Amino acid sequence: MSDARIIRNLALVGFMGTGKSAVGRLVAQQLQFTFIDTDELIENEVGKSISEIFAQQGEAAFRKYERDVVKALCDRRDTVIAAGGGLVAEASNLASLKTHALVVCLWSSPETIWGRVRAQTHRPLLQTPDPLGKIRELLAQRTPAYRQADVQILTDFRTPKDVAQHVLHQFQLARSSN
Ligand code: S3P
Fold first, then answer.
1. CA of 3 to the centre of ligand 1 (A)
2. What are the tens digits of pLDDT across the range 12-44?
3. Does the structure show a pLDDT above 80 at 77?
4. Which residues lie with the beta carbon below 6 Å from any ligand 1 atom?
């Protein structure tokens, strides 16, 4: 990792249902960092749920809110950030996160993701007749972006606690070589 990079925060990226929030909360607890979720920040800022934003203002407006949140994150210290699944599909968002955070991507197979999210209704992109097909399509589209993260971790068949330990280890390694 370049000497010029100062790792003050940890960002968890990756597809919906890979466990970013569950793992992020555990890691934040261990590090005694603040935990934030970009979707929650947007919902609080706009005063609407993600579903309402998509329905009333469209996806492009949501992506603009994401870019604004990403800019504001640059001032953070000692924060674990769980990023919305599409956030790093925009290269400038990932580049911005990398200026202050170690970026860790969580991965799961489309089937595991579907198993985890099928009972939930708050993800507008999956409210389609063929959600598993949509997961496959979006995951394939975003794979090149997710691969740009600093660390890649597979979460299939692993508990959030186990994944959190792995993330923590990678974070401590990155900070010690910083
Ligand atoms: C999205 C993922 C969601 C949320 C929105 C769009 C995406 O976040 O930002 O529904 O484009 O993949 P999670 O990854 O936290 O579910």
1. 32
2. 999 999 999 999 999 999 999 999 999 999 999
3. yes
4. 16, 20, 39, 50, 84-86, 123-125
Quick one: tokens of 8?
A: 């003050």
Spatial separation of the C-alpha atoms in residues 168 and 26, rounded to whole Å? 9
- For ligand 1, what atom is nearest to the CA of residue 38? 9
Q: Give the pLDDT mean for 76-86.
A: 98
Amino acid at 135: I
Confidence (pTM): 0.96
- Closest ligand 1 atom to 37 CA: 15
Q: Coil, strand, or helix at residue 152?
A: strand
- In one-letter notation, the amino acid at residue 73 is L
Q: Rounded to the nearest whole angstrom, what is the distance from the C-alpha of residue 62 to the centroid of ligand 1?
A: 10
| Residue 114 CA, ligand 1 centroid: distance in Å | 14
Cα(177) to centroid of ligand 1, in Å? 32
pLDDT digit string (tens) for 102-155? 999 999 999 999 999 998 888 999 999 999 999 999 999 999 999 999 999 999
Burial track 109-130 (b if 16+ CB lie within 10 A, e otherwise) = ebebbbebbeeeeebbebeeee
Burial of 70 (0-12, 13-18, 19+ CB in 10 A): buried
Q: By the 8 A CB rule, do 87 and 70 touch?
A: yes
